[in-house]
Amino acid sequence: MHLLPPVTLYPSISISSMFKFFTTLFILWSFDSSSLLSSALPNSPTLGSRSILRAIKRGADRPSLVVDLNITNFDAVLKETPAAYAIIEFFAHWCPACRNYKPQYEKVARLFNGANAIHPGIILMTRLDCAHKENTKLCRAFSVHYFPVLLWGPPAKLIAGRYDGKKVKSEIKLVEDWESSKLLLNWINTQLKSSYELEDEKFEHDELLQSNVSDSGQVARAIYDVEESTTIAFDIILEHKILVLPL
C-alpha cells in the first residue's frame, strides 16, 4: 500500500493568522451549507421539529381550491370561466358523506383549479351548498334529491339548461363514479380521452427553478465571494507554510 509522507505543522504562526485562516474556511463552509440552501429554497421554514410542525399546520389551513357557487354568482362564474367543462358538486354542509368526500374532491380540484393548477383551463371544479335556503330552488332545478350529487357539462349548458335525470342526449351528465378522487379522475379521463393522474406535477417544479435563476446579480456575487475566500485561504497557507509535504 502506498502511504503519503507525514505532514509537518509549523508552530511559528501567529494567532491572528490562524484566526484569519479558520475564519476564511468557515466562510467557505457557510456558503456551501447555507447560501446554496437558502437560494434553492427561499421560502422554506427554519429547520427544526417545531418549524416543521408549524409548516404542516399552515398547509392544513390552506384555503380550498374549489369554487363555491350560490344563487347570486352561479351564472357569472360559469360565464366567465375559460374552462371547457365544469363539475358542480351539489352538497349539504351538514351531510356526513359530503364532509368525508370533501378531501377527495379537493385532490382533483388541485389539478384544474387555482393559479397553480397543473392542468388549467380544462375543468372548473365547483360546489353548491343546497342546505342554504337561497340555493334550494337552484338545486331543485337540477333534480338534486340526495347528497352529494356531481353534474358535468359545458358551463354555457349549465347556465342555460337544467337537468332532470331523464335526458339521454343531454350535454349535462351525472357523474356516476365519484366516490374517491381516483374514481372521479378516471371518469373525467373517460370523458376527455385523457390520461391525467393525481400525482401530476408541474414540469420539474418550474416555480422553484425560476426562483433559482431569477436574480443573476445574486449568483454573480456568490461566485465572487467564493473566489475571494479561496484566494485568501491559499495566500495564508503559502505565506506561513502551514502545511508542508516533504519531497
From TrEMBL:
Signal peptide: none annotated. It holds the Pfam family Thioredoxin. One of its GO terms (molecular function) is flavin-dependent sulfhydryl oxidase activity. One of its GO terms (cellular component) is extracellular space. One of its GO terms (biological process) is protein folding. Residues 56-193 form the Thioredoxin domain. This is Thioredoxin domain-containing protein. It comes from Lactuca virosa.
